[in-house]
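Dear support,

Our group has been running a series of protein-ligand predictions, and this particular one with zinc ion is the one our PI (initials K.S.) wants archived with full inputs and outputs. We had some confusion internally about which version of the output was final, so please treat the block below as the authoritative record. The input we submitted was:
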Amino acid sequence: MKLKIDEAIGSLDYRDLVDLHEDIREGGNSIRSIVEQKIVEKEKEQGKFCAICQSDIDPHSTTNYTILLGPEGLRRKASFCAIDCLKYFITSMENRRDRISEKMHKNNNNVCAGEIDE
Ligand SMILES: [Zn+2]
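Confirmed final output from the archive:
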């Protein structure tokens, strides 16, 4: 992530760098506005295609579903073209949660067994 920001800043010409520096020194209102606008654009982009089958999402259809995932500040949006794709997504999330839970349980048992042996 940091490298990408470094690359983006590195691609600016001298005049843009000076303007950016001045904006940051004055509170960064311009750069904040640009970043917020890009976030809105990216969020709209995420809602254009089904997260499972990649088909186009018709924004006027009543069979579309959109969910917000993750903690506040790191929220991501996922859209689905139909309930089948939403169900597939939820089932995949449940399976992944179960695998992680199994793995953690297995690792905890190993730790406990190790402690008993000592
Ligand atoms: Zn779909």
